[in-house]
Each structure stands twice: as C-alpha cells, then as structure tokens.
Amino acid sequence: QSALTQPASVSGSPGQSITISCTGTSNDVGGYNYVSWYQHHPGKAPKLIIYEVSNRPSGVPERFSGSKSGNTASLTISGLQAEDEADYYCSSYTSISSVVFGGGTKLTVL
Amino acid sequence: EVQLLESGGGLVQPGGSLRLSCVASGHTFSSYALSWVRQAPGKGLEWVSGISGSGGSTYYVDSVKGRFTISRDNSKNTLYLQMNSLRAEDMAVYFCAKDRGYCTGGTCYPRGSFDFWGQGTLVTVSS
Hints:
By secondary structure, chain A is an all-beta fold. Chain A has no helices and 9 strands. Chain B is globular, with a radius of gyration of 14 Å.
C-alpha cells in the first residue's frame, strides 16, 4: 500500500494551464478506473473535483479535467485562477480493496 | 446533499482507546459506502478504513489492522471508528467521507470517490 507519487509542488500564472501527475502501479491506478482528485484548502474539508478518472461532479468548473495513461493519471487545470491555489491529492482503488492517496501537490498561483 | 458531522476526538495517552462517531443527514444512509480518512500534522491525506452500505464488508489500511474497527448503525445514521492501542503516529485529524462507490446487489462498496466530507475531528496521542 505505497502512496501514489505526485510532484510536491507546481506553479503557474493566472490564465495558464498546469498538469499534476499521479503515478502508481498496475495494482492501483493502472488496474482500475477509480482514480479521483481532491482539492484541499488547509483547515477545510477536501473537495472532490474528479472521479473515475475523468468525471466532474456537479458544480466543478470545466477548467478541471482528468485523464489516465497506463499507471499514471493526470489532473489539468486550465485558465488558472487565484482561488485554485490549494493542495491537490489523487487517490485510487487498489487490488486489495483498499484506497491509496498520493502524497499531495501544492499548487501556487503566481 | 449529505451532511457529515464527526465527534469523539480528543487527547489520549499512547496505548489508549477512543471511539469516533460520524452522524449523517440528507440522504439514505444505508445506500452508500463510507470511509475514514486522516491527515497527520503537516502530512497528506491517508485512507484509514472503509465500510459497505450494509456494513457487511469492512476494509483497513495495514497500519491499523487489528487495532481499529469500523462499524455503522444504519438505524442511527451513524458511522463509528473504534481505535485501540493508539500510537503517536495515529495522531491526526480524522474525516469521515461518503463514497460514490460501486453499487451491486443492493449495496455499495468503497471505491475511493469521496464526494462528501465532514469537517474532521482531531485525535491527539500524547503522554
């Protein structure tokens, strides 16, 4: 049950696009389409922004999109806004019926 | 919409026990899977345990197996986490979370798609 691998930090200017990667194995990310992404502002509850690789819950802007190739999933945020500055986590269902999160990525909007 | 409210956190000595509760409202409680997710100070999110909608299937991260027990009382719309033999590394904010899950045969199973979260309850393990 090793954590999924995410970059510790990414940054971008308002209006730009950024992509956060999430690398696992064939026992988690690569084996199932149950990859989710969360936005977490410290001190608040995490917010689901992508589920099942590429689906957006109601109310999440189209600027947020998800994809997967092999053992790596990706979150892309286009048209960066100041309020997007937060920590982002990926998660995946695993072959042993558990859930594993990534280490988290701090997004800074310059 | 689902509302989740955790309680039961507090200060406990190493080796001690604590029971967390999470009361849900706003949806048919027994129809969805639930999980506990924690965040240690300065660390990332970690899934701790999950339970199916019926309560018949439970799942744990290796580090808490044999020490923590997840359960639910669907008549009270309440999720529980009984934590025994607590260690310093268990100190964290504990969130309960509803899972969109995978539903079959009349019940839903955790899949890690947590669409509603509580605000969390802090567990401090210290002597």
